[in-house]
Amino acid sequence: MLPFSYTRAADGDAAIAAGALPGAKFLAGGTNLVDLMKGGVEAPQALIDISRLPLAGISALQQGGVRIGALARNSDTADHPVIRSRYPLLSRALLSGATPQLRNAATVGGNILQRTRCHYFYDPGFQMCNKRNPGSGCAALEGHNRMHALFGASAHCVATHPSDMCVALSALDALVRLRSAAGERAVAMLDFHRLPGDEPHIETRLVPGELIVSVDLPASSFVKHCAYLKVRDRASFAFALVSVAIALDVREGLIHEARIAMGGVAHKPWRAFGAEQLLVGAPVDAAPFAEAAGAAVEGARALKHNAFKIDLARRAVLRALRIAQS
Ligand code: SF4
C-alpha cells in the first residue's frame, strides 16, 4: 500500500474542502475502499474520514417520503421501522447484500459508490483494464466474462454495478442529495451512475469534492406488492448474477403502476421501462407477467460466457413478479 494522509473531518464544510483536493477520497465504512487500497487498485493520497459527521439519521419527510442519511449503516437502514413498514423492497434488497458484519459497517453513501467486482479490475496483475488503467483495454471482453453486462456495455468496459441497494433505490425513484462548495443539488438515482462509454473510469455524476449527504425516497405506494430476488452462485456473501426489484401498485385487481429494476446486468441499475409499461392496466395475471418478463430482456447482448444470464434474467423477473403478486 502506498503512503497516504489521514484526516478526520470536523464538520461538513471541512470535509468538502479537504475532499476537493487532488488525490483525496472520502472514507466512511471503508468496506470497499480499504480492500481496493490493500489490493493496489486504488491509491488515494489523502483519506478524509467523514464517519463522525452527523449524516446517519433516517427521518420521515413532510411530503410523505423519507430521508436516509448517507452515513446510515446498511443494517440500521434495513431494520429501521420506517423503512421496514413503508419501503420493504429496500429493506429486503439491503439484507440480501454482503454479510451481517459488512452491513454493520457499510454505509448508504458508500454502497452507492462501491465499485465493480470485475476480477480483472481487482487484480493489478492484469494490465488491461480501462476502468483501473484508462486506455489500456478491457481484459474481460475476450476473457472470462460470465458475470458481466448484458445491457449498456461498450467496447471499453463490460463491467456491472454490484449493489443490491441501488437496484431497489432505482425502482423506488430515489433522489441522491449532494453537497459541495457550490451548494446542494439532487440527482435521480437512475441518472447517478453512468454507462461506461469510452470513459469507464468515470462512474458517477459526482464532481470532485462533492459529498453524498442523503438519499430521499418519495412516498411509496408499493408496500404490499414488492419483491427483491437475487440469483447468485451461492446462497450468501456473493454478488448477483442477476437481481430483480419489483414494485407493483395494484388497485381493484389491475396494475396501476409497475417498476422493474435489474442488478448484475449493467454498469448501473437497469430499469426495464418497456416491460413496466406493458403491465400498466393489466390484470395481476400470468400472461402479462410472462410478456413483461420477455420485454425486460429485449435488447440484451451476450458476451462469450454470459448468454445464460439472458434467460436467467427473464425467469428472475417472472418469478419476482409472482412473488410480488402474493
Ligand atoms: Fe476493466 Fe471494465 Fe474490462 Fe472489467 S470490464 S476489465 S472493469 S474495463
Number of helices: 14
What is the annotated CATH architecture of the domain at 225-325?
Answer: 2-Layer Sandwich
Helix content: 25-40%
Instruction: Extract low-pLDDT stretches.
Output: none
Q: Give the overall average pLDDT.
A: 97
Biggest sheet strand line-up: 4-5-8-6-7
Task: Please state the structural category.
Answer: alpha+beta
Q: List bound small molecules.
A: iron/sulfur cluster
Run of helices and strands: EHEHEEEHHHHHHHHEEHEEEEEHHH
C-alpha end-to-end distance: 51 Å
The fourth-level CATH homologous superfamily of the domain at 225-325 is CO dehydrogenase flavoprotein, C-terminal domain
The level 1 CATH classification of the domain at 225-325 is: Alpha Beta
Strand content: 15-25%
CATH topology of the domain at 225-325: Enolase-like, domain 1
Overall morphology = globular
**Main β-sheet description:** 5 strands, antiparallel
Please tally the β strands and state the result: 12
- The gyration radius over C-alpha positions equals 19 Å
